[in-house]
Write a structure and sequence with these properties.
With 134 residues, the protein is mainly α. The protein is built from five helices and two strands, in the order αββαααα.
């Protein structure tokens, strides 16, 4: 199995964990914030689940499918995280369409809330473009 396919399997595992965060006792506070930082609603859970299944399907389908997954997923999630810094909301959960912009901010809260998408998106995009070459 190629490194690209293994990375896609890793994304499957990570995204399944993200989809399960709301359902693990003790990880959300009384306000429903995971780790006290961000709220995940059922739509977010479904987005993470669908992304996880996409990662698994791509890993099973082969090297080329895994590379395409990493590039597309990476671009989408990286962009979502960057939008979060500029507006306070992402586009993957339609937050930028349903909420007024909170403006650009690099507060610790905003960084911690958007860093997961920036990190996983950036790494996936990098891996798909750099490691995906045969």
């Amino acid at each position: 199995m190629s490194i690209i396919r293994l990375i896609a399997v890793g994304y499957f595992v990570a995204l399944m964990i993200a989809a399960a965060l709301n359902y693990i006792p003790g990880l959300t506070d009384e306000e429903g914030l995971a780790f006290g930082i961000f709220a995940l609603d059922p739509f977010d859970d479904a987005l993470h689940l669908v992304s996880a299944l996409w990662a698994l399907g791509a890993a099973i389908a082969g090297h080329r499918a895994a590379k395409i997954f990493l590039v597309l997923f990476g671009a989408l999630y990286l962009g979502d995280g960057v939008f979060g810094f500029f507006t306070g909301y992402g586009y993957l959960d339609f937050g930028i369409f349903t909420n007024p912009s909170a403006g650009l901010s690099f507060t610790m809260f905003r960084v911690l809330a958007n860093l997961p998408h920036v990190a996983i998106g950036g790494f996936a995009l990098w891996a798909g473009l750099r490691l995906g070459r045969r």
